[in-house]
Specification:
120 residues, alpha/beta, four-stranded parallel beta sheet
Amino acid sequence: MRIINSMNITVKRVYQKADQDDGVRILVDRLWPRGLSKDKAEIDQWKKELSPSSELRKWYNHDHSKWPDFKDRYFAELSRNSVAVNELLSLCERSKVTFLFSSKELLLNAYALKEFLEER
């Protein structure tokens, strides 16, 4: 079992200014953020394969009452993608990382992904 220090993973909006303390900046959205050029984004990696499927994202539709079910379904998707999850776990063990997302909403896959990895 791997244990990740929760201090190694930070979550923030991609539109916030990059900071030296961010470590490896990883976009965890399936879609590229609107109105943001790749140069200004200062993203090191884009892990869209670890974002919720389009079907799950559309089903959730920012309905907070679905959050517990969304997390269960998302965690099931992540569990089926063990290669990408293990690569990310390995990176989190070696480096500080910041998961970036574009939405203004706070109940998002970036926080769910952080929780999923910290439980591993």
